[in-house]
Design a protein that fits this description.
Elements: H1 6-47, H2 49-58, H3 67-87, H4 91-108, H5 114-133, H6 140-153
Length: 154
């Protein structure tokens, strides 16, 4: 069996330790980046509600929901879920909700520019990571979660 020389093994472990130490910062950055994009979109929608309703009636073709309901649901999601994601409260839940909003946004547009599609793919990738790994150590979930789960286990 082939093993790495001790010097290489120690260097590798040191690099892995540094990368592990950066994980909370990376997860926080991902949360804040995605939250900002969706929250600003929600703010744009409530600033001009008549235009928002017109867009949902004419351009955004959300399946199943009437345009007025889709507008309220989408805007509410874009304003509430990013705040939860940013602070890391119900982090996986809010990431899943924004992931669904992201998919609906892409599917409901009849035409989407390549640059916009790439942005949605990037957001979806970051949200997938947050769904899989959670919001990280620098989140409300990390503080409250163990206490909450301890009560739930009893």
């Amino acid at each position: 069996m082939l093993t790495a020389p001790p010097v290489l093994a120690r260097a590798w472990l040191r690099v892995m330790g540094w990368l592990e130490a950066l994980q909370p910062l990376a997860l926080l950055a991902a949360r804040l980046y995605v939250a900002k994009a969706f929250f600003w979109s929600g703010l744009t929608k409530i600033r001009d509600w008549d235009t928002t309703l017109a867009l949902f009636a004419d351009e955004y073709h959300v399946p199943v929901l009437p345009p007025e309901v889709a507008a309220v649901a989408g805007t509410t999601g874009e304003l509430v879920l990013p705040v939860l994601l940013a602070i890391g409260l119900a982090g996986r839940f809010s990431a899943m909700g924004l992931f669904v909003l992201n998919i609906v946004a892409v599917l409901s547009l009849q035409e989407i520019a390549d640059a916009a599609l790439q942005q949605h793919i990037f957001w979806g990738s970051l949200l997938t990571g947050l769904i899989l790994w959670g919001p990280g150590k620098w989140s409300v979930d990390a503080v409250v979660g163990p206490k909450f789960l301890g009560v739930a286990r009893r």
